[in-house]
Amino acid sequence: MSNDLSSKPYQVGYALTPEKEKTFILPSLLSHASQNGVSLLKIDPSKPLIQQGPFDCILHKLYDSDWKQNLEDFASQNPNIPIIDSPDSIEILHSRISMLETVSKLKINNTGVPNQITINEVTDWENLEINFPSIAKPLDADGSETSHKMHLVFEKDGLKNIPLPFVLQEFVNHGGVIFKVYVAGKYSRCVKRKSLPDISEEKLMISRGALPFSQISNLTAAGGGAEGCEFEKMEIPPENLVKKLVEGLKEELRLNLFNFDVIRDVKSRDDYLVIDINYFPGYAKMLDFESVITEFLLDVCSKR
Ligand SMILES: Nc1ncnc2c1ncn2[C@@H]1O[C@H](COP(=O)(O)OP(=O)(O)OP(=O)(O)O)[C@@H](O)[C@H]1O
Ligand SMILES: O=P(O)(O)O[C@H]1[C@H](O)[C@H](O)[C@H](OP(=O)(O)O)[C@@H](OP(=O)(O)O)[C@@H]1O
Ligand SMILES: [Mg+2]
Ligand SMILES: [Mg+2]
């Protein structure tokens, strides 16, 4: 689908950090979008949105309070201009507890989330109802540098130097491959990505404390995934299961732009666990992301 090229192109304003702009607003996206009737225009978040534009849609991934207020002022005067996405919906993904509660609510067969507990203070360690190894993840998943600083924890002792508050999520062996499902409006695609390797019983016997790591999925996206046929052989989850998760999460989250990470439990190969959900992820890592994003924006603007 493309906009009728004889008419004026849709004007889509974007408000992103400089880093996000660099990795998302690529020349290939700008040219594909403009050839299909969509102009992507940079917003100056420090200036009132109502004095910029005019826009047919606003795309954003900024979280500071000034920007939220700017967006609110604009929305109150332009209730018919789609904002992708609503800050209130995005907020659900900024806590690793509320993010995964949405999955548990879906009650889809063979899907769930790993057992996890919140650690707000040191006294919470007394009667830990969790198995090790576990992954300690910052409770806030707000896109900050620290929000990706994780620790693989082998025993209770390994918790002592981990910055509070954090979520302690049981580590599930999943064959070293993670499935990332990207969603952009009515479009979705499941891709494979290299993940943390399984932890053997032997490794567990000799491992102590905790190991730090961060943003493994970004590293391996560039590296093209795991070596060897194991990665190639790993089948992606059944299409109907992915579809149910996509539709369920879209309804539950009321978001257009997100992805979620799914792993398959090696102990029960039909069971899938969602371990992470991300707002406005790295779409440019997806093949032909230019047409996916352009189609999405055309769909949003034409529905106005
Ligand atoms: N419960 C788990 N069991 C096994 N491995 C896990 C688990 N949770 C996370 N991992 C591993 O740690 C990696 C990072 O975890 P997660 O995706 O939650 O962090 P993140 O910083 O939000 O990552 P992203 O860059 O995808 O936002 C995953 O890609 C996976 O390799
Ligand atoms: O490999 P993906 O596309 O999942 O990597 C994403 C990651 O999942 C998060 O969405 C990151 O955003 P934050 O959680 O806000 O840090 C993305 O970083 P970004 O700089 O592209 O927004 C990763 O690309
Ligand atoms: Mg992830
Ligand atoms: Mg994440």
UniProtKB/TrEMBL annotation:
EC identifiers of the protein: 2.7.1.134
Amino acids binding 1D-myo-inositol 1,3,4-trisphosphate: K20, K61, H148, K180, N278, G282
Residue sites binding Mg(2+) 2 per the record: D276, N278
Pfam family, one: Ins134_P3_kin_N
Gene Ontology molecular-function annotations: ATP binding; inositol-1,3,4-trisphosphate 5-kinase activity; inositol-1,3,4-trisphosphate 6-kinase activity; inositol-3,4,5,6-tetrakisphosphate 1-kinase activity; inositol-3,4,6-trisphosphate 1-kinase activity; magnesium ion binding
Binding site for ATP: 96, 137, 169-180, 195
Catalysed transformations (reactions): 1D-myo-inositol 3,4,6-trisphosphate + ATP = 1D-myo-inositol 1,3,4,6-tetrakisphosphate + ADP + H(+); 1D-myo-inositol 1,3,4-trisphosphate + ATP = 1D-myo-inositol 1,3,4,5-tetrakisphosphate + ADP + H(+); 1D-myo-inositol 3,4,5,6-tetrakisphosphate + ATP = 1D-myo-inositol 1,3,4,5,6-pentakisphosphate + ADP + H(+); 1D-myo-inositol 1,3,4-trisphosphate + ATP = 1D-myo-inositol 1,3,4,6-tetrakisphosphate + ADP + H(+)
Note accompanying the cofactor annotation: Binds 2 magnesium ions per subunit.
Positions annotated to bind Mg(2+) 1: D261, D276
PANTHER family in UniProt: INOSITOL-TETRAKISPHOSPHATE 1-KINASE, INOSITOL-TETRAKISPHOSPHATE 1-KINASE 2
Protein's job: Kinase that can phosphorylate various inositol polyphosphate such as Ins(3,4,5,6)P4 or Ins(1,3,4)P3.
Subunit and interaction comment: Monomer.
Protein name: Inositol-tetrakisphosphate 1-kinase
Organism, as annotated: Hibiscus syriacus (Rose of Sharon)
